[in-house]
Design a protein that fits this description.
This protein is mainly alpha-helical. The protein has 5 helices and no strands.
Length: 116
């Protein structure tokens, strides 16, 4: 029974964390991982017996810093794409009829005019 109780405790702790009801915040954990010295390849320095070019370097694209950065860019892209779809829809107010769609309109377009 002890294992089951511990599992329920962990489940409750995780639920509180995911619902931002914990003292530890997700952004704090991600920030610690992203800024940790081990999350990027270490710089190597040449010396008489080991030139830097001969050192093996881990692939930066497999390391935490790079993966978090890729994830963040994908997330922003997803949000921007979703918002762009809404803006370009007929309900969004920026959708033009075929007659209005022309290069002059695109050339003269200004968000300032739209927001006024």
């Amino acid at each position: 029974m002890k294992g089951l109780a511990q599992s329920q405790k962990h489940t409750q702790m995780m639920a509180k964390f995911l619902q931002s009801q914990s003292t530890v915040k997700a952004e704090e954990i991600v920030d610690l991982i992203y800024n940790h010295p081990e999350s990027v390849p270490k710089a190597t320095w040449s010396n008489a017996s080991h030139p830097a070019s001969a050192m093996l370097h881990p692939d930066k694209e497999l390391m935490a810093w790079w993966k978090i950065k890729e994830w963040a860019v994908r997330l922003v892209k997803k949000i921007v794409s979703k918002e762009a779809e809404v803006m370009a829809s007929q309900e969004g107010g920026l959708h033009l009829s075929n007659e209005q769609s022309n290069w002059k309109f695109i050339h003269d377009f200004s968000f300032g005019k739209v927001l006024d």
